[in-house]
Design a protein that fits this description.
Pfam families: Polysacc_deac_1. There is one protein chain. This protein is of the alpha/beta class and 339 residues long. The protein folds into two domains: 187 residues, Glycoside hydrolase/deacetylase (TIM Barrel), CATH 3.20.20.370; 73 residues, no CATH class. The chain contains 13 helices and eleven strands. Strands 1-5-6-7-8-9-11 form a seven-stranded parallel β-barrel, surrounded by four helices.
């Protein structure tokens, strides 16, 4: 065990050194896009019902900003970097853009104060039809469902879910790690089907003892406040976070992509024509619609972006406590992308 831990620490250090050297030797203007989802303190109750790869502690986010500064990377708005490149204006040798996917309320509560303090701009990719609602995404609903109760063997309401559970019929609530695996398996279904099943469940399975989690997604006031001084801008992440490769209907694709842009244009300020693919899933038809309504798009592909990068194929680093809790781990995550 000690040997394995030592080898892991050595590998992290090597990857960090590779990442640091590669960045230092890079001569072509390069943009690093740092991607986050939820920003939650270490003991926040929402962590009990969230995928570990979705969560970053506020102090870890602050460490990332300091680490980027230490390697000489300049903070920049994503759309500003894209616009400068398009206009042929000089770009920093090394810059980084902060992005948050989904539009979580905790971005306002815990990340925004850090961005303000350190004067770091950011882009939040909004799921526009969830703004100003009490709704959340199906993975969070499933996580809470299967980690707080055993799924009844005889309950017909769960026939759709049982094939995805460990050992098919567990008799106890799942651990967070087991529930995370269930989420991965459920992605073989389309989003509307999963949501329909969840909406059909009787309240006895979903009220969780009468305890309500508070609003999870941003509201208009929070969106406007963060955009009022120009520090935070907003791109599109579809209307409902439906994965594009699971939408066969052309009208549904239009509504999720073109409709998302229409929703963004209603914002008082801060909207930018940059899209972010839900789950990183891309289809030819979906990409064509994105190109017709947006000027750039972020993927989930790992890596940084040179000045020659396709605007609709922007690479990013998805960060969370597990892969970037320290400066060394952050640099190792960046270094891993070039191997």
């Amino acid at each position: 065990m000690i040997l394995r831990s030592g080898l892991k620490s050595f590998a992290i250090a090597v990857l960090a050194a590779i990442g640091w050297m590669k960045l230092k030797l890079q001569r072509q203007p390069t943009l690093i896009i740092l991607t986050y989802h939820r920003t939650l303190p270490k003991h926040h109750p929402d962590r009990e019902y969230e995928q570990p790869g979705m969560v970053t502690a506020p102090e870890v986010l602050a460490k990332h900003v300091d680490a980027m500064s230490a390697i000489g990377a300049e903070p920049i708005h994503l759309n500003e970097w894209l616009n400068k490149r398009k206009e042929g204006l000089p770009l920093p040798r090394l810059s980084y853009a902060v992005t948050f996917d989904d539009g979580w309320r905790d971005n306002y509560q815990y990340a925004y104060p850090i961005l303000l303090e350190k004067n770091v701009p950011a882009t939040i990719f909004l799921v526009t039809k969830l703004v100003d609602t009490e709704k959340t995404f199906w993975p969070e609903q499933v996580l809470k469902l299967v980690t707080t109760q055993a799924i009844p063997h005889a309950a017909k309401e769960f026939e759709w879910l049982k094939p995805f559970l460990p050992h098919n019929q567990p008799s106890v609530p799942l651990s967070l790690e087991e529930a995370d695996e269930v989420i991965g398996k459920l992605k073989s279904l389309d989003d509307q089907t999963i949501l329909s099943h969840l909406n059909d469940l009787p309240p006895i399975y979903t009220d969780h003892g009468g305890k309500k989690s508070g609003r999870a997604i941003l509201n208009t006031d929070e969106v406007n406040e963060m955009a009022s001084d120009g520090l935070v801008k907003y791109g599109g992440h579809t209307r409902h976070h439906f994965r594009l490769n699971r939408l066969d209907d052309d009208l549904a694709l239009q509504q999720e992509i073109a409709g998302c842009m229409e929703d963004l244009q209603v914002l008082n300020y801060g909207q930018i024509p940059v899209f972010c693919y839900p789950n990183g899933d891309i289809t030819d038809r979906g990409q064509s619609l994105v190109k017709a309504h947006f000027q750039a798009a972020c993927t989930t592909k790992l890596g940084w972006n040179t000045s020659k990068q396709d605007s609709y194929d922007l690479h990013r680093f998805n960060l969370h406590d597990g892969n970037s809790a320290s400066r060394l781990r952050l640099l190792s995550t960046i270094g891993r992308s070039i191997l």
